Amino acid sequence: MPRLALLQSRSFASKRESFDHHERLIRDAAATGANIVATQELFLTPYFCTVEDPACFDLADPLPGPVTARLGDLAGELGIVLISSLFEHRGPGLYHNTAVIHDADGKLLGMYRKAHIPQDPAFEEKFYFTPGDSGWPVWNTRFGKIGVLICWDQWFPEAARLMALGGAQLLVYPTAIGWLAEEKSALGAAQHGAWETVQRGHAVANGCFLAAVNRTGYQDNTEFWGQSFIANPYGELIAKASPDREEILCQDLDFQHLEDFRRIWPFFRDRRIDAYGDLSQRWRT
Q1: 240 is catalytic
Q2: Least C-beta-crowded within 10 Å: which of 19, 53, 54, 220?
Q3: Strand order across the beta sheet in which 229-231 lies
Q4: Residue 123 has what DSSP assignment?
Q5: Active-site annotation holds for 208
Q6: Set 41, 88, 124, 247: catalytic member
Q7: Which CATH superfamily is domain 3-271 in?
Q8: What does the pLDDT read at residue 279?
Q9: CB-based burial label for 107 (10 Å; 0-12, 13-18, 19+)
Q10: Which residues of the chain have pLDDT under 70?
């Protein structure tokens, strides 16, 4: 039975400091028996998307490159599956919000580039990120079949369903989401409730485990709300972190439970695949 660890952490003054700190967290997670370890979104940097600043492009790394080499060495040494969220410089003027997945032997299995890119006050992501073109990969790792989506992707049931149809037993969402100071009192509880509820629904509708790993702390006018969580196929929260502290959130996952669930609630069997063609349209009039 694999053990999942989510690294809920904060921002640091430099990429080097962040990497060194997260390496310690990864080692601590592995020491507790974790087989699968996931970072928050863009773990090497502050959440720079609060503003549009061309200088922030300098924070990106080529992938694969030195960053993935270090991550792969760490995964291989510890014998863990490692899911890391990074800022990718793909080509001239071309940048992505990208997750990389290393297997327990240190091999880089592949990358997922964030498909859905938001644009809101203090979430100026369309300025920085090109929409991903990596499709909906599912990786058959030593410790299970894993699909990785990133933050804004978590609101779209189509993405979760496509990865579940690819065999995912676990969906992992590296995340950087929080409240704006002027909205928190009026909308904070509703916003957080919607975020948690929609993802718990993905777990139920797809009969899989789902994990969201958020950051904590402040960036400019944004208060990240932490509260990373792991949900089972019934949508129940089986592990949840605090709103405001760094934590390593661990949970054992029984993948046999998924087959039992899918036999009782056979959503994949009863899908009307002959009737969903309109989903490929922007709007149905």
Answers
A1: no
A2: 54
A3: 138-141, 144-148, 170-174, 209-213, 229-231, 237-240
A4: B
A5: no
A6: 41
A7: Carbon-nitrogen hydrolase (3.60.110.10)
A8: 92
A9: middle
A10: none
pLDDT at 285: 78
The residues, any chain, with a CB within 8 Å of residue 259's CB and separated by 6 or more, are none
Query: What are the structure tokens assigned to 121, written together?
Result: 């006050």
Specify the pLDDT at position 250: 98
Active site (annotated) includes residue 196: no
What's the pLDDT at 284? 86
Determine which one of 49, 56, 125, 151 is catalytic. 151
Interior/surface letters 160-199, b for 16+ CB within 10 angstroms, e for the rest: bbbbbeeebbbbbbbbbbbbbeeeeeeebeebbeebbeeb
Report the distance separating Cα 109 and Cα 81, nearest Å: 10
pLDDT digits (tens, 9 = 90+) for 74-133: 999 999 999 999 999 999 999 999 999 999 999 999 999 999 999 999 999 999 999 999
List 49, 56, 88, 114, catalytic entry:
114
